[in-house]
Amino acid sequence: MDRKEHINRRVILHLDMNCFFASVEQAHNPELKGLALAVAGNPKARRGILVTCSYEARAFGVYTTMTVGEAKRVCPELVLVPPDFEKYRQASQAVFAILRTYTDLVEPVSIDEAYIDITEIGGLEDAIGIALNMQERILRELDLPCSIGIAPNKFLAKTASDMKKPMGITILRKREVSDLLWPLSVLEMHGIGISSAEKLAQSDIHTIGDLATADDLKVKLTLGKRGLKLKQRANGVDDRIVDPDASAERKSVGSSTTLAIDETELDPCLSVFQKLAEKVANRLEAKQLAGTVISIQIRTAAWRNQSRSKTLLNPLYREQEIYKEAEQLFRLHWDGEPIRLLGITITNVIPFEELHEQLSFDNFERHDKEVSMQQLVARMNEQFGPGTIHKGKQ
């Protein structure tokens, strides 16, 4: 069988855990089941941001990215818990372990989602049965709900898993793309965020169908080579394979340097961290990755090695954000001992296209303004005609 024929007959599942952090909390503490529950970055601060919330909370109008104060006004009985990343990592590993009992072709792409290629263990004929069995086992063994998309490629499988939540199983065929996806806004397409949607709107590309049928040169001028890949996916085309080794290969991105002298002053060390942050950001950009764990490495003149880490709600990939976190870790943990080597490493990395930014207080106001502006521009263009108004560049 040649590669093209194999691609055409692939059957890929995308498994997405439902309200993962909240569901893990409810599984660990059955008293939380049935309650309106939210995991918040800082539950005690009224301006803390909700990382995720249970479906019971959503029924009251609570949603992710709300501040604690807003959520409490909407739902006074809302139960708030702080995030427990170790608990979530253990639950994630247990989910992936169950998936690997079906096939080795499992590719985790974040803490709560994975692709599974079931072409050789049942294909389309048995796809619903396999997906249903996975879903039931994860619920029975781990007490965690999930949704599963079934499709001939990764992009369509991921899109399908979003169509029915919670506990949904959805098949999305390539021939259905024009009817089901093309009428939707490009902002609803995986891989397109607010910034890319604004650029596309300036090129009079507003829907997934507009992107699918746009001229290649127009798309490339708007979004570069990445735009052409997105256009292919808007047409239901995605040749990426399920690669079990991908997550291991992209496990970390880092940079370190040996200092010219054994440094004892703060400012020169921070200057080194600034340069390291730039290198790491460039490497992340080149690999199209972002990560939620940052570590700094310190080797003293006495060859004593230290590593200090921090887990974040928001994946890091920008230079200044990387530097800010590295600086804070260094200021907190350096004891003044002469330093021979410094380093920064970003781990728990995921591809940009799989990136789901979980908002913290630091970026909530910026994000909220961007969304509000985009909604205003959309309403104005709907009233006065497409392309009449667009957001200016700063």
From TrEMBL:
It catalyses: DNA(n) + a 2'-deoxyribonucleoside 5'-triphosphate = DNA(n+1) + diphosphate. Its main location: cytoplasm. Binds 2 magnesium ions per subunit. Keywords: Cytoplasm, DNA damage, DNA repair, DNA replication, DNA-binding, DNA-directed DNA polymerase, Magnesium, Metal-binding, Mutator protein, Nucleotidyltransferase, Transferase. GO terms for molecular function: DNA-directed DNA polymerase activity. Its EC number is 2.7.7.7. It is an enzyme of class 2 (transferase). It is found in: Cytoplasm. Mg(2+) binds at D16, D112. InterPro entries: DNA/RNA_pol_sf, DNA_pol_Y-fam_lit_finger_sf, DNA_pol_Y-fam_little_finger, DNA_polymerase-Y, DNApol_IV, Rev_trsase/Diguanyl_cyclase, UmuC. Its cofactor is Mg(2+). Residues 12-193 form the UmuC domain. PROSITE patterns: UMUC. The active site is at E113. The record marks F21 as: Substrate discrimination. Belongs to the DNA polymerase type-Y family. HAMAP family: DNApol_IV. Poorly processive, error-prone DNA polymerase involved in untargeted mutagenesis. Copies undamaged DNA at stalled replication forks, which arise in vivo from mismatched or misaligned primer ends. These misaligned primers can be extended by PolIV. Exhibits no 3'-5' exonuclease (proofreading) activity. May be involved in translesional synthesis, in conjunction with the beta clamp from PolIII. Monomer. This is DNA polymerase IV. It comes from Sporosarcina gallistercoris. The gene is dinB.
